[in-house]
Structure prediction request, 400 residues.
Amino acid sequence: MKPKIQLVGGCASNYMNEVLPGQKLVSGNDSGVSEASGNTAAGALLESFLETILGAVDASAGVARVLSPDGLLLRTVGCAGEPSESCRSEFIVDADCGVCGKAASEKTLQASEVEFCKSRYGADFFGKACKFVLAVPLGTCATENEPTGVLTLFFANKQKISDEYRRTLESYAELICIALKNVWKSEDGYQTNILVERQSIANEIHDSLAQTLYFAKIRSSLLLEAMKSKNELLAYKCAQDIEESLEGSQRTVRELVTHFRCQMDPRGLSFALQKLANDFVVRSSMALEYDNQVAEFNLPLEYELQIFLIVRESLVNIATHSGASKAKLTVRHKKNQFQFVVEDNGTGVADGAPPDGHYGLEIMRERALRIGGEVTVESLQGHGTRVQLIFNGPAVPLGA
Prediction:
């Protein structure tokens, strides 16, 4: 498997594409480092490091490249000392190009006269300062799926490669490789955080806005039936429910925009669960037995919020899908283990994955994992459904 390449230096914004005609690739000091990425901290660090290497080994110029994900190209991630035109012409080269390609593929230091480069880019190449090329692999510290590539150094004169000199060059290449790995991991972590945040927002929308709108949709269908049957009392009740749902949706949107999450009762989980039970009875016209044997939860806010959302999702599922006439919410606490059980006498659910577009159970399980718990679902066709959340309280008491 070819490595996933993350970018440093000024080549970041163009790394996966060809260089556009007329695009500026070098900075004002003509060091050969592109400004395309907005002069990132990583790019500035790599440029400075390359310049340090050039001074230490008495090289005229240097360029660091990494393999593209398909392994067919070597793309520049940083360079120093090269004139503008050379940096542009060598921004992307074939993976088997000269000593650079050989060093990258064989992971051994390669040396050559500059004649091959001249044959590709013209007799001048970049002047009399370039007579000899050394290519040092970057992949010696990399593992699968990590950056691999080559550090290429250009010299005015042929270099004698002693064992000590070789070790010095390999050490510099290894440091560049480590730097690339750190940037790669950092950017990969950033992308992961974005995905987690998006998932969190999707969960909040599902658990709040989507459920309210679904209730309004059901009431709309019932309103149409009431109008057809000229049942004015039922029609008025449905219209009132729809209006309340839309007002609730509007509040939810404001909360999501402001906080990316819907807030439960600020007085805590006990009050929030009681209100949830009361609202369930009013909105579903279904009997609900609420048995809470925990006087004080004393749980962190994150725990209480996840519990509230799991219980709310379970009750919403009963109201919208179960066909039940009654339900029960039970809360227990014994030996530091909390248990929340939601049951109904409905039709039950079939085994297997939920239908496409229904993510409630998956989201409940994700929420349970955040507090070190587990959600289980027991169902018998025609005999109802039992949803249970179990978790252990935090090891350190709240406020300790």
Notes: The longest strand covers residues 326-334.
